[in-house]
Amino acid sequence: MTSRLILNRLAFTGPKTPRVELTFEDRLNVVFGASNTGKSFASKAIDFGLGSGGLLPDIDQRRLYDKLWLSLACDDQLATLSRSMAGGNLNVVEGITDQLPQNARILGQKNDASNENNVSQFLLSLIGLRGRQLATNVSGTKRPLSFRDLARFCIVDETAILSESSPALSGQRHSATVERSVFRLLLTGLDDSAVVPVMDPKSFRTSKAAKLEMLEELLSSVQADIEAEFPDISDIQEQEGKLEDSLIAAQADIAAAQQAVQVLLLDRRTATLEYARAEARMSEIEMNLRRFARLQEVYDSDIERLESIEEAGFILTIGGDRDCPLCGASPDAQQHEHALGDIGRIRAAAMAEIAKIKRQQVDLNATVQQILGEGRALRNALPDFAKRLEAVESQIAAATPEVSESRTKLATIMAARDRVKRGLSLLEQRDGLIVRRSALELEKATRVGERPNQGINSTATYDFAQEVSRVLTAWRFPGNRHVIWDDATFDLKIDGKLRRDNGKGVRAITHAAFKVALLLFCRERGLPHPGFLLLDTPLLTYRDPITSKHGELSSDEQAFAQLPLRDHFFEHLAAEASGAQFIVLENVDLPPNIGSLARVEVFYGEKGGGRPGLFPTV
Hints:
The chain is of the alpha/beta class. It is built from 13 helices and 16 strands.
């Protein structure tokens, strides 16, 4: 069984008035009352709560209320749709409520198949019909299904139930094709997603003329460019061949010239590096010679100091009655004695250190001489390096004009080739446009037989007609109840008579049978359907001909008024309410046992005795 919608509660709230509500159960529901008690307003309010674009009737009783709440269930999900009485977008919240949380989800009123945040896509998702496509014309142009397309099959107002149009159609010619597609979808479960659109003859002719005009304009523009830019267009193919040969030769010349220059550039780089290295080494030698000179000065200073020490030791060893050479004390003032052995050792150490420094001076002098020799060699080689670099620079300067000339020649050839290629491109465009124009001139409008077949499978319409027959039989509809589907009127024939050819009351009851049978047909076959059916005044034939606004009964209505069809109507709906919710709005007398068959809400009107109407006052 597919998912279905169950209406639970219709409520109205206002800032300064108590909530008004009308509750329903998942079975047969009957709202009974006299005219002008709010029954039809309730029907319109339910449709409004499900996203209808029209505004609610501006009756006095509704003016205290600013918000409508429609609670519904689908499988285990409970939700309430909330909408301002002024129209516009909706909110949806979980559960049955008349309180709107701060972060309530907003649903747009207009259908948008690419966005789930609108009321149509929300409801279609619940019943498994989101993403379906409908053909909008005989050529197969498609648009997404909207819940508004299904509304006529689950909400039947008083005007529609009396109409002579098929119950599947609104009577508007511009919407007939899409309405037929919706009925086919419900009857078969198949939408028009697989339909490949074709263009109708009138649109084809208009489109063809526009395309030909555009092609002529393009062709004229291309031809004008050819005549203005290429007076020699006749031999342009030959020009292309010659230019390609010249281009190859020019590319070879520039490659050879560039190769020669590359070799010279490599030589220049080598010569530059050698000259730079020689100069760097000369700078390094000069810096080292300065360092070695300072080192020589250090060595000379150290030797001078050590020779002074050795000389002082010698003097100490030859006399002790002199002023001390170490501390300067006079012989009388000297408080210590110097051991001759210590002085000898100091002299020996100084002489050893002097010898060591002199050996280091010999090594330093050898190193300096070596560096001086290297410096003289580099100084003599630097002019040779400079001459080599100058010679390479001269060769490069001589080769550069040849490269530039080759490049200029190549650029000239490429510019000429690009011009030729543009000419060839224009010729190709012209020839292509001529071919397209010729092909378009030969195109013909799609034949009628090639349009998609949008009829309904005869087996499906036959089975549906039998379902209607079973419903009429259960209601004890008079006659043989032989029902067939008439493709011409997209409606039913009952006992050989078109449904629309009956009086208002009979049209109402047979319209109701059509919609009830469709719901039962879908339920039994597991086909998607909203799952509920609201019927406004289906038993019109039982009206009072004096007080009713619909006037006297026609002859066929008079015959029906004598039959117990009304009683069997309610009994059948009550028996079939498992998996289907029925809501009947009526103002004719109800069967005595209606309380055991349905949930009944009575609007007493001016008679008193209970609820006066949908709103507290009528």
